[in-house]
Amino acid sequence: MVNNGEMPVLAFHGAKIGLSEGQKIRKIDVEGVEALNRQLLAKGSEIKEMQDQLADILNNTRKNKTDYSAGKIEKLTFLKDQDRLFKEKSKTLDDLRLTVRDSEGIIAKVKGLLEQNKME
Fold first, then answer.
1. In-domain check, residue 43
2. Which residue has the higher pLDDT, 57 or 82?
3. Which residues pair with residue 15 across a beta bridge?
4. DSSP code for 22
């Protein structure tokens, strides 16, 4: 019997588990979590590829001794957030959704930096 995504748990494989009467655990949307995990892995690969492109740009700029303003280098620091996003373990479906949304923001920032570099 499911009520608002939660179900009372009385027994698991015939063995009583440690919940007092009235306690509930949330039903886990396994398919939803798996779908979000696949999206996250795909976005992680996309971010990694862009991060490599940005690293190449930065390395080439340093080798060529081209003036590279501190402001542009500071813009690259958001890539540190990417490490945080993919190292943390998401505990809930909502956490996964937020992580996917955050990764989309990082991808947009990286694309903007790559476009800006092409213009210069």
1. yes
2. 57
3. 12
4. T
In a domain, 105, yes or no: yes
Flag whether 23 is in a domain: no
How high is the pLDDT of residue 26? Answer: 54
Residue-wise pLDDT for 15-59, tens only, equals 444 555 555 555 566 677 777 777 777 777 777 777 777 777 766
Exposure string for 36-48, b = 16+ CB within 10 A, e = fewer = beebbeebbebbe
- With respect to residue 22, please indicate whether it lies within any of the assigned structural domains: no
- Rg of the chain over CA atoms, in angstroms? 22
Strand 24-26 relative to strand 6-8, pairing = antiparallel
In this structure, how many other beta carbons lie within 10 angstroms of the beta carbon of residue 82? 21
Report pTM.
Answer: 0.30
Q: How many domains does the chain have?
A: 1
